[in-house]
Amino acid sequence: MSDSIPAPAARAQRPWDARLARWLVTPLAASRVTPNHLTTLRLAVGLAGAAVFTQGTYGWSNIAALLVVLSNFLDHADGELARVSGKTSRFGHIYDLASDAAVTILLFVAMGVGVGTGSDNLLGVPPPVLGALAGAAIALIFYLRMRMEEMAGKAATRQAALGGFETEDILYLLPLVTVCNCIMPFLIAASIGAPVFAAWVVLDHRRVARRLKPVAASPTSGTRLI
């Protein structure tokens, strides 16, 4: 976050889950717990959630959704601990991005596997393929966002926000999807929406690339203030 933004204004723009995460991790600032520890925990919980989704049953899917929600929240916790403790590093930044990509991509692939190849859907495409399509689009989005951040700083990849919620916070609705047994419609929507959003990010990346001359990554792009 830019140092030029007044503290009160910056707090007002922060997502609700990031504010809660900061409150929870502040006591850890002086401890031996590092942001990388929380990133590892986030990765483990997220991968566990994806693995549980492959079971495909109603009960396991609800448990998987709760694990994914916890993993998504921990994704904010590591960044907040980095802020309050000053424990930032280039490795931590890349590790965090890689964990985000791995968890999100595998989540959709696992959901497709759990739904099963024999499931009917309006698109006539096997669910695992739909999951892989959504996952591939998300992988492209993560890569382009990382490139844009290297070129123009964190502000270039700031997500759309409304009422204290960001685009990625849609994953907090996943338990509602599983409770209503709507994984297949959710997967279809993701297989369409993710590629469309990826196309928009491709255009945005081209716009940023044209606007800026090729330069080395700025010093701030190596931190994990996310």
Please tag this protein with its features:
226 residues; mainly alpha; Four Helix Bundle (Hemerythrin (Met), subunit A); two-stranded antiparallel sheet; 8 helices; 67% helix; disordered N terminus
How does this structure look, described?
This protein has helices at residues 7-13, 16-25, 35-53, 58-85, 90-115, 127-152, 174-179, 183-211, and strands spanning 161-162, 165-166. It starts with 6 loop residues before the first helix and ends in a 15-residue tail after the last helix. Residues 1-12 have low confidence and may be disordered. It has one domain: Up-down Bundle (Four Helix Bundle (Hemerythrin (Met), subunit A)), CATH 1.20.120. It is built from eight helices and two strands. The chain is mainly α. It has a two-stranded antiparallel sheet with strand order 1-2. The radius of gyration is 18 Å and the shape is globular.
